[in-house]
Amino acid sequence: MINRKLAVAIVIAGLSFTSCKNEKDENAEGDASENTENMPNMNTAFIGTYTKKEGHVDGKADGILTIQQDPETGKVRLGRTVAEVINPSFVKLTSDGKYLYAVSELGDKDAASGFIHSFQVKENDSLVEVDKVSTEAFAPCHIEIDKTNKFAFVSNYMGGVVVMYRIQQDGSLEKHQQLDMPNPKESHTHSVSISADNKHVYICDLGADKIWIYDFDAKGKTLEKNQQESVSLPEGSGPRHFTFSKDQKFAYSMNELNSTISIFKVEENGGLNLQNSVSSIPEGFTENNSGADIHISPSGDYLYASNRGHNSIAIFKIDKKSGGLENKGYASTNGKTPRNFAISEDGRYLYAANQDSGNIQAYKVNSATGELDAIGKPTAVPTPVCIEFLK
Predict the structure, then answer these.
(1) Nearest 5°: phi and psi at 213?
(2) How far from each other are the two terminal CA atoms of the chain, in whole angstroms?
(3) Are 194 and 180 in contact (CB under 8 A)?
């Protein structure tokens, strides 16, 4: 069995080593200091970043950035800084694109807590801050918004705290409910995911090797424990991010510590039945690696997962009857430490944020095979960790 503290220490040490030098990638296109105004017929994505040196990263950005995407070619170029926030490592838009929320990932030496910032998105994609509230713990690392755009959820990596906020008409936030995980010193809540019918909430707890399950009543405005309180993963898995198959019959967790993807059958009551797990890295790869993000193509045919260490996007074909995954290969991210990645709304392109090499790699998605073909060289972007497209 894996000793948890040792496993976490190994992951952190490995990430610290790769991030000790955040030099500009010589192969990257563009100047990270270049400011580009919005151009006609271009799509905008907001980029979450790190802005200062931490134990696992040497932040080089100065806040929330934008990139501009050409929807015809898939190419991107660096935009500008639209909000000066400390360590806005995760950003999330409401589905109507009116408001953007960003964590300020702070530790106990930085402030009394972490924060979540609320911004109104203006017509020129600039941001106007409307609110800033405490996340009630430290190192907030993920934001989810329910299907009605009335509630926001923040996961704090330190302290085992998840907070649900009521979204007000002006985009500001009002604390509504706080969930305190068991054993807060060991708990590392990393994400909240909500079922398509808005009835169930799933919390990935990396420190507990559990996914906590709650029933969500948006009308009653409450979270209650599901009949199945949680599902346990093998010790040392470290569930980080979570996603659903297109038909919502299956779910998948990206497990950070042992670089696996777990497959679950979703029960009618929202419970999870663990089927099996597959590796996110090639057989025989022995260097340090930690799993990061996970997404499914809009078609529902392919699942993608990012690997920090192997520095790749893993590609899997989904068996829609069983939920099983068949590995179809790997695409290099042409950079170091890919964190989050995003698939364009039309499914034609994928973008990977390389945290430690300071760039974003664009790919053309082959809809028939799921393969990823790199579009030119990566674009220089300072310490990118999250990509959120404005729809």
Answers:
(1) -120, 130
(2) 45
(3) no
Domain 4-36+144-389 fold is Methylamine Dehydrogenase; Chain H (2.130.10)
Q: What Cα–Cα distance (Å) separates residue 182 from each residue in 185, 207, 210, 213, 302?
A: 9, 11, 11, 14, 35
CA–CA separation, 385 and 356 (whole Å): 9
Q: Are 308 and 294 in contact (CB under 8 A)?
A: no
* Alpha-carbon span 192 to 142, nearest angstrom: 7
The domain locations on the chain are 4-36+144-389
**350-384 burial by CB neighbour count: b if 16+ within 10 A, else e?**
bbbbbbbbbbbbbbebeeeebebeebebbbbbbbb
Q: Pairing state of beta strands 250-255 and 239-244? A: antiparallel
Q: Contact 136/161 with Cβ under 8 angstroms?
A: yes
- d(CA 381, CA 111) in angstroms, rounded, equals 27
Which amino acid is residue 159, in one-letter code?
Answer: G
* SS3 state of residue 13: helix
Cβ atoms within 10 A of the Cβ of 46, count?
26
Per-residue pLDDT of the chain (391 residues; tens, 9 = 90+): 444 444 444 344 443 333 333 334 445 665 433 444 556 689 999 999 999 999 999 999 999 999 999 999 999 999 999 999 999 999 999 999 999 999 999 999 999 999 999 999 998 999 999 999 999 999 999 999 999 999 999 999 999 999 999 999 999 999 999 999 999 999 999 999 999 999 999 999 999 999 999 999 978 778 999 999 999 999 999 999 999 999 999 999 999 999 999 999 999 999 999 999 999 999 999 999 999 999 999 999 999 999 999 999 999 999 999 999 999 999 999 999 999 999 999 999 999 999 999 999 999 999 999 999 999 999 999 999 999 999 8
Asked whether the beta carbons of 323 and 316 are under 8 A apart, the reply is no
User: What φ, ψ does residue 6 adopt, rounded to 5°?
Assistant: -65, -40
Q: What is the DSSP letter of 248?
A: S
Cβ(297)–Cβ(315) below 8 Å: no
Residue with tokens 């105004």: 37
Q: What is the pTM of this model?
A: 0.91
